[in-house]
């Protein structure tokens, strides 16, 4: 009988000790230390070391947007870095394989829209993309053939439209939009914005946006000052209307009606990563457009809209 009581007492004591140990802070600390040691073991493994070594060599850090003294706003560009933890999980139990590294795109700390409003003349030089910016206040007779060339080459451009022209050519505006091209604001009456009051500038931009929105149900997000003439007040007003002020880094000077050969050479000699190429619907532009596009691609550049060039997203290199 005594033995039975002794066994019972011992059993109860064991249960009490076990229960106490589960709530003992030192036990919790010990378990936490075990987890930390496991993490250290993973991080200190030869595989993890190889992954980190590759990361130190292959990571491409993002580039912040900035304001240049000459070129004004320069957009940022995303980086691409190796996710060490995800790469380890993918390779765990195997040997290191660079092709199995997990990469992720990382945005810059500072984007263009986080800077004070400023004009932009070109994209980030690390982004091998250029845009055709076609300012339209006249020359609609050349647009159908230009659209055919763009479609044949699978290229989307940005058409900056004069508001009064858009009102008279609504079918053409819809055609540009339906073909997948970006539509921008080019003021309403092709004025010299430097000569206008703030109220007049705002009216020029708002009236143009109203016509474009009524035609294609889209609000422009980019604005090109007529003749490239502007002051900082126009930039501020455009920004208040949700539009980035855009100029150019490569000019076709097509309004002087050069030969197609001269126009093509002029562009291809100056084209660069992030270039914004200014052109208009003219006869030499229409005749040289195909050669310009092929030449730009041959030099390793992709063609996109102005907004795509100014976006910080990375582009994949094409063969």
TrEMBL record:
Residues 128-304 form the NodB homology domain. One of its GO terms (biological process) is carbohydrate metabolic process. CDD domains: CE4_BsYlxY_like. GO terms for cellular component: membrane. This is NodB homology domain-containing protein. It comes from Guptibacillus hwajinpoensis. Pfam families: Polysacc_deac_1 (PF01522). InterPro entries: Glyco_hydro/deAcase_b/a-brl, NODB_dom, Polysacc_deacetylase_ArnD. GO terms for molecular function: hydrolase activity, acting on carbon-nitrogen (but not peptide) bonds.
